[in-house]
Amino acid sequence: MKTFKAAAEDRDFAVSAEIFLKPDTGAEVIREQASLLKPAVNGVLLTDNQFGHPHLSTLAAASLLLANGVDPIVQLSTRNRNRIALLSELLGAGALGVSSLVLVRGDRVPDGFKPRPKAVHDLDAAELIATASKLTLDERMSALPEFYIGGLITPHAPKPGWKAAKLIEKIEAGAQFAITHVCMDIPLLQIYMKHLLAIGLLNRVRVCVSLAIIESASDADWLRAHRPNVNVPESQLARLRQAADPYQESVRICAEQLSALREIPGISGAHIVATRQLAAIPAAIEAAGLLPGR
Q: What's the cofactor (predicted)?
């Protein structure tokens, strides 16, 4: 099985996924989730206190994945740490042997979180990417980390003259790949990728598209209401509402999306999240014909 970095760089349609990290998630649960995903994916993304919900550190989770032969993709958010703490996390990631990073600003902490934490944002996402990139070149390091650095992007239909300034800023800071927010709208992705191709950015960055296995229309309604960057077409919600078995239908939808993504020029892979059952992820990958040889 190739690592996430190797699959993305080889344009071998990298497939990554997320495990569930919650306040009560312990080491054994992480090992079980990693074992379930290991035969199907090139890497596993570890989110950094996603939606503002605390859980064990991404580096602790990464060490568990590495010990179980799974390539971790570590997310770090500028929301939670100042630049000293972020640099410490990056050095720790390098020491563990983590290669792939997704460096982000971070979600707004939900209003109901009490006592209310203070967002830090000492650095923005591009500055954190630049910091990680500089570490890979710092001759003062006893062993240079070999980071594969990524950021987040949001697919949309670009207006005339759109120059992708935020993406270019991240690329120039050192980003080598980008993972999109969840986008299940294939026609929109075709438009977006065509534009990135036309302005020459796909020679400089790999793009992986996030898909969600949404097991009920109510899950999709919640995502669309609370996560403004999530794009799930109404036609897919209708399929879930009408399905005799919404779980199986959600797996079919994801498999169809995976097959469609492989036909869009410039897309280097897919990142899959599940709303309820992690087993849906390898099921969708297998249904799309991507499991053998991964």
A: FAD
Is residue 82 within 8 Å of residue 54, measured between CB atoms? no
List, for residues 145-176, the tens digit of each pLDDT value.
Answer: 899 999 999 999 999 999 999 999 999 999 99
Domain residue extents for the chain: 4-287
Residue 150, beta-bridge partner list: 102, 177
Bridge partners of 45? Answer: 18, 73
Which long-range contacts link 90-93 to residues 24+ away (Cβ below 8 Å)? 90/131, 90/132, 90/135, 90/145, 90/147, 91/135, 91/145, 92/59, 93/59, 93/62, 93/145, 93/147
Which of 166, 167, 155 has its CA nearest to residue 194?
A: 155
Could you report the per-residue pLDDT of 229-247, keeping only the tens digit for each? 899 999 999 999 999 999 9
